[in-house]
Amino acid sequence: MAKGKEVRVTVILECTNCVRKGVNKESKGISRYITQKNRHNTPSRLELKKFCPYCYKHTIHGEIKK
């Protein structure tokens, strides 16, 4: 019996605030988190509010392609 696509998939969340600004003098990098999501429950892109150590505040982190 062949297995289909896995239900739980690993995704990377990236700070949207750092990406929009670009990497400049203020931010020394781009904050990224690795997490898992359920494909059946969340078919759209995942967005969570996480802490960004480069912005020094909680910002929205969106799912990116691998």
TrEMBL record:
<dbReference type="InterPro" id="IPR038584">
    <property type="entry name" value="Ribosomal_bL33_sf"/>
</dbReference>
<dbReference type="GO" id="GO:0005840">
    <property type="term" value="C:ribosome"/>
</dbReference>
<keyword id="KW-0934">Plastid</keyword>
<dbReference type="GO" id="GO:0003735">
    <property type="term" value="F:structural constituent of ribosome"/>
</dbReference>
<dbReference type="InterPro" id="IPR011332">
    <property type="entry name" value="Ribosomal_zn-bd"/>
</dbReference>
<comment type="similarity">
    <text>Belongs to the bacterial ribosomal protein bL33 family.</text>
</comment>
<dbReference type="GO" id="GO:0006412">
    <property type="term" value="P:translation"/>
</dbReference>
<dbReference type="GO" id="GO:1990904">
    <property type="term" value="C:ribonucleoprotein complex"/>
</dbReference>
<keyword id="KW-0687">Ribonucleoprotein</keyword>
<dbReference type="Pfam" id="PF00471">
    <property type="entry name" value="Ribosomal_L33"/>
</dbReference>
<dbReference type="InterPro" id="IPR001705">
    <property type="entry name" value="Ribosomal_bL33"/>
</dbReference>
<dbReference type="GO" id="GO:0009507">
    <property type="term" value="C:chloroplast"/>
</dbReference>
<keyword id="KW-0150">Chloroplast</keyword>
<dbReference type="InterPro" id="IPR018264">
    <property type="entry name" value="Ribosomal_bL33_CS"/>
</dbReference>
<protein>
    <recommendedName>
        <fullName>Large ribosomal subunit protein bL33c</fullName>
    </recommendedName>
</protein>
<keyword id="KW-0689">Ribosomal protein</keyword>
